Amino acid sequence: MLSEKEEKIVGKLYNCLDEISNKEIKLIWETGEMTVVFDTCFDDFNENDESDEFTSFVFKVSSTKGTFPVIISEDNYCIINYHNFPTKIEY
Predict the structure, then answer these.
(1) Who contacts 86 (Cβ-Cβ below 8 Å, separation ≥6)?
(2) Could you tell me how many helices (H) and strands (E) the chain has, helices first?
(3) Sheet holding 24-29, edge to edge
(4) In a 3-state reduction of DSSP, which class is residue 9?
(5) Under DSSP, is residue 48 helix (H, G, I), strand (E, B) or coil?
(6) Span 22-65, pLDDT tens digits
(7) 34: exposed, middle or buried (C-beta count within 10 Å: 0-12, 13-18, 19+)?
(8) Residues contacting 84, CB < 8 A, separation 6+
(9) Which of 63, 79, 82, 86 lies at a C-alpha separation of 20 to 30 Å from 12?
(10) What are the pLDDT digits (tens) for 8-23?
(11) Would you put residue 76 in left (φ > 0), alpha (ψ -120 to 50) or beta?
């Protein structure tokens, strides 16, 4: 279940996870973008403030352009949440 703060930022994505499963979508920030496929989501928390609980979304990255506030793992996965959420998502 999303917190009130999260609902405003990630609610639309959370509510259409079934719709986007196994489909490429584009995550867009002001400085860059990436094409990804949704993998999973999980409950997460801020290690510096354990009261800051939120949902994180895991994506398999297929292409990138520019820069963005996300770290891509060696096996091309990334995690987004309301702290680094894109400004636009194209389904």
Answers:
(1) 27, 28, 29, 33, 68, 80
(2) 2, 5
(3) 77-80, 49-66, 32-46, 24-29, 88-90
(4) helix
(5) coil
(6) 999 999 999 999 999 999 999 998 888 877 889 999 999 999 99
(7) buried
(8) 68, 69, 70
(9) 63
(10) 889 999 999 999 999 9
(11) left
